[in-house]
Amino acid sequence: MAYQQSGMPDQQFLWDVFQRVDKDRSGHISADELQVALSNGTWSAFNPETVRLMIGMFDRENRGTVSFQDFGALWKYVTDWQNCFRSFDRDNSGNIDKQELKTALSSFGYRLSDHLVEVLLRKFDRFGRGTILFDDFIQCCIVLY
């Protein structure tokens, strides 16, 4: 199943979001600021490790933060992953179970055994429910890549 990639939002929209997230008005978004701003669609906090990985991917200045110039790409990255996640969350539960994870990974070209999918599920299931939330799904995919 294909998922819809989002287009880049306009600069004014991104600037407004950036300013709301940049709580200390430093002109850069820290991992802590980004974590507060991101939502799983549940009441759980976004995984700090996922936030750290994403900051590292988009921090071209090696400051541990994201500038406005890099924020648009980060926004698109999260939005595209959100669309992808929703396309595999067939029951709209806000999380992905073992079968949904296997389907997602297969669509990305990974041919993993049921055992390996179970290992990934256990590794990225922070709450022991047999499911993966949106942020942990991103982290799982980053680690596999």
From TrEMBL:
Q: Tell me where it resides.
A: Cytoplasm
Could you read off the lineage of the organism from its UniProt record?
Eukaryota, Metazoa, Ecdysozoa, Arthropoda, Hexapoda
**What residues does the EF-hand domain cover?**
9-44, 76-111
Q: Record's superkingdom? A: Eukaryota
Organism (species):
Drosophila busckii
What are its GO cellular component terms? Answer: cytoplasm
Single annotated GO MF: calcium ion binding
Where is this chain primarily localised?
cytoplasm
- A family per Pfam: EF-hand_7
Matching InterPro entries: EF-hand-dom_pair, EF_Hand_1_Ca_BS, EF_hand_dom, Peflin/Sorcin_CaBP
Question: By what name is this protein known?
Answer: Alg-2
Record keywords: Calcium, Cytoplasm, Metal-binding, Repeat
The keyword Transcription regulation is assigned to this record: no
